[in-house]
């Protein structure tokens, strides 16, 4: 196909730029597809629903930030995009709550020893 024919095709179907969506029916089929889950791509083990459905994550910088791109720093890239199926863990081993439960029952440790250190201000 030549460039002129490509331009004519784009003019005939305005708004459709994807190679898979060249007509309205294909576009509707693409929109109707369910979101891809992590377990559809990877073998998962004991995975919570929030990791199996990463498209549920909201509130990341690219979704809510009104900051002008000129003032964005390179450090803001971390956490800018929500996790995808390739960046969420495929296995999940939660930590036990035994330490927290014991601490809640007994209370926080308190040091009752004498303070023998020098006064940091230097005044006696």
Describe the structure.
This protein is mainly α and 124 residues long. It has two domains: 1-33, no CATH class; 35-105, no CATH class. Helices cover 32% and strands 0% of the residues. The chain has helices spanning 3-12, 24-32, 38-41, 49-52, 61-64, 98-106. The longest helix has 10 residues, at 3-12. It is elongated and about 85 Å long. Mean pLDDT is 76; it is low at 13-18. Belongs to the PIERCE1 family. It is found in: Cell projection, Cilium; Cytoplasm, Cytoskeleton. This is Piercer of microtubule wall 1 protein isoform X2.
Helix-strand layout with pairing:
Blueprint: H1 3-12, H2 24-32, H3 38-41, H4 49-52, H5 61-64, H6 98-106
Sequence stretches where pLDDT stays below 50 over 5 or more residues: 13-18
The DSSP helix count reads 6
Number of beta-strand segments = 0
Shape: elongated
Helix content range: 25-40%
Structural class: mainly alpha
What sequence of helices (H) and strands (E) makes up the elements? HHHHHH
Termini separation: 91 Å
The major beta sheet can be summarized as: none
Overall number of domains = 2
C-alpha Rg (nearest Å): 28 Å
Strand % is: under 5%
> Overall pLDDT, averaged?
76
Protein name: Piercer of microtubule wall 1 protein isoform X2
Keywords: Cell projection, Cytoplasm, Cytoskeleton
Subcellular location: Cell projection, Cilium; Cytoplasm, Cytoskeleton
Main location: other
């Amino acid at each position: 196909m030549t460039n002129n024919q490509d331009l004519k095709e784009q003019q005939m179907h305005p708004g459709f730029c994807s190679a898979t969506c060249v007509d309205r029916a294909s576009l509707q089929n693409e929109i109707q597809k369910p979101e891809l889950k992590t377990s559809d791509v990877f073998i998962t083990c004991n995975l919570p629903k929030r990791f199996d459905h990463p498209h549920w994550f909201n509130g990341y910088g690219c979704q809510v930030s009104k900051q002008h791109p000129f003032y964005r720093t390179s450090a803001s890239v971390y956490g800018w995009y929500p996790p995808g199926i390739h960046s969420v863990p495929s296995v999940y081993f939660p930590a036990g709550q035994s330490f927290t439960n014991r601490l809640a029952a007994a209370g926080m440790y308190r040091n009752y020893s004498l303070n023998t250190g020098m006064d940091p201000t230097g005044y006696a």
